[in-house]
Amino acid sequence: MAYKIENDNGVCIFTINREEKRNAVNDEVMNGLREVISYIKENKSISFLVITGAGEKAFCSGGDLSEFHSLKTEEQAFSMLSKMGNILYDLATLRVPTIALINGAAVGGGCEIATACDFRLVASHAKCGFIQGTLSITTGWGGGTYLFERGLRHDRALKMLVDAKSYDANLLYEIGWAMRIFEGSKEQALDEFILEMRKIHPSVHQAYKEIELRKWKERNMYERVMEEIRLCAKLWESDAHNEAVYRFLNKSK
Ligand SMILES: CC[C@@H](C(=O)O)C(=O)SCCNC(=O)CCNC(=O)[C@H](O)C(C)(C)COP(=O)(O)OP(=O)(O)OC[C@H]1O[C@@H](n2cnc3c(N)ncnc32)[C@H](O)[C@@H]1OP(=O)(O)O
């Protein structure tokens, strides 16, 4: 199965389980994310959602280019991008705190998933970046909009997007994208973080999130995410994008 969902005493852990593809997101993973979001909405005993990837090499390498490369037109691209864009919006607006447990590289859409989460705990060896520019596209799942809302200095957020390269963990911490860097096992890093969080009643965590989400509603967050996705869909059908994806998929041949 392309994903795993576990409930560890009120902490719901979603693991993308496609190590051989560096945990790239395909339709099955998207449907899994939908499933976990619905589960949390219906199950009030869940206090946290954690997203992570299988193995140590990658948290998530973004959209599965071998599957999504068949989408050629703007409308075809928009249909896939907006499906994931809606899922990420639902994730970002969940009542419970969300934690990206970044066990390895988070690039492209993987970096967008992490940015849509409230907290980013980053393994010291992990490199993360919005590398979409190297594929002649922009962030296609709303990640640019979330990044600009995350309180990073504007120049640092913008530079992270236009650099289109991966940053190491120290730099991610320095610019304020990573909340914490960890050495050793991700399970231990998560346990320590959850232990601190549990000192405060879940209703308090949820009340603070509500305050932030109200701000987002007033700032038309959903509409802005959809406009971002439309921009990416337009670039998706360009020759430059098609050629870049072809090069990636044929790099070792
Ligand atoms: C679609 C939405 C869009 C968005 O909105 O942002 C995107 O996400 S665009 C996709 C952006 N992602 C990429 O461009 C892929 C980037 N991948 C990498 O840079 C590297 O794979 C890595 C994540 C840094 C890991 O490097 P490494 O450990 O050296 O692994 P390999 O590169 O050798 O990959 C192993 C294996 O996995 C396949 N792979 C990796 N990422 C993807 C992907 N996103 N889609 C499909 N396949 C992917 C890679 O092709 C290798 O396959 P094999 O050669 O068959 O072993």
UniProtKB/TrEMBL annotation:
Catalytic activity, reaction form: (2S)-ethylmalonyl-CoA + H(+) = butanoyl-CoA + CO2; (2R)-ethylmalonyl-CoA + H(+) = butanoyl-CoA + CO2; (S)-methylmalonyl-CoA + H(+) = propanoyl-CoA + CO2
Q: Would the keyword Isomerase turn up in this protein's UniProt record?
A: yes
One matching Pfam family is: ECH_1
Matches recorded under InterPro entries: ClpP/crotonase-like_dom_sf (IPR029045), Enoyl-CoA_hyd/isom_CS (IPR018376), Enoyl-CoA_hydra/iso (IPR001753)
Q: Which family does it belong to?
A: Belongs to the enoyl-CoA hydratase/isomerase family.
Name it.
Ethylmalonyl-CoA decarboxylase
Which EC class heads this enzyme's classification?
Answer: lyase
Give the keywords, sorted: Cytoplasm, Isomerase, Lyase
Where would you find this protein in the cell? Cytoplasm, Cytosol
GO molecular function terms attached to this record: isomerase activity; methyl/ethyl malonyl-CoA decarboxylase activity
Q: What does this protein do?
A: Decarboxylates ethylmalonyl-CoA, a potentially toxic metabolite, to form butyryl-CoA, suggesting it might be involved in metabolite proofreading. Acts preferentially on (S)-ethylmalonyl-CoA but also has some activity on the (R)-isomer. Also has methylmalonyl-CoA decarboxylase activity at lower level.
Please tell me whether the keyword Isomerase is annotated for this protein: yes
What start and end residues bound the annotated signal peptide? none
The Gene Ontology CC terms held by the record are: cytosol
Q: Please state the Enzyme Commission number of this protein.
A: 4.1.1.94
**Gene3D superfamilies under this entry?**
2-enoyl-CoA Hydratase, Chain A, domain 1
The lineage's top-level taxon is Bacteria
Q: Name one GO biological process term.
A: fatty acid beta-oxidation
